[in-house]
Design a protein that fits this description.
This protein is mainly α and 136 residues long. The protein has helices spanning 5-8, 11-67, 75-134.
């Protein structure tokens, strides 16, 4: 977008720069909308994974109370059941951690896009000032 100052004195060049700036702003706004939707989806995935962790934790605790830690163990079946539930809980926690990382990256991307949009708005304001200056 940077051009020599001689090009800025040309009205066609200024108009082209203004058009380019408007297109860039539209592009940045569309990208922000997409990123915001992706961040919202990522946050919903975190909520779903939290519920899955809670459900799996309850299942593990039920298995413990039925035949594991809190009640008399019934042979090897109870131990396997408790171990299976513990493994499933660990997997649910891992999925939840991954969902949280993804949501954090999505939020970071949204913030960076907002900063780009603000920087572009500042550039457009400078361009408007130049347009006013050179049209005098």
């Amino acid at each position: 977008m940077a051009r020599p100052s001689g090009d800025l004195k040309d009205d066609n060049g200024l108009a082209a720069l203004a058009t380019l700036a408007r297109r860039r702003e539209a592009s940045l706004r569309a990208a922000l909308a997409r990123m915001t939707a992706a961040a919202r989806d990522a946050n919903e995935a975190v909520a779903v994974s939290e519920r899955a962790c809670d459900t799996q934790r309850r299942a593990w605790q039920d298995a413990l109370s039925r035949g594991g830690l809190y009640a008399q163990r019934e042979a090897h079946g109870a131990t396997r059941s408790v171990e299976a539930e513990r493994t499933a809980l660990a997997e649910a926690k891992a999925r939840h951690g991954a969902a949280m990382e993804h949501a954090q990256r999505a939020e970071t991307a949204v913030q960076q896009q907002r900063e780009r949009l603000q920087a572009n708005a500042r550039k457009q304001e400078k361009l408007r000032e130049l347009l006013m200056l050179y049209r005098r």
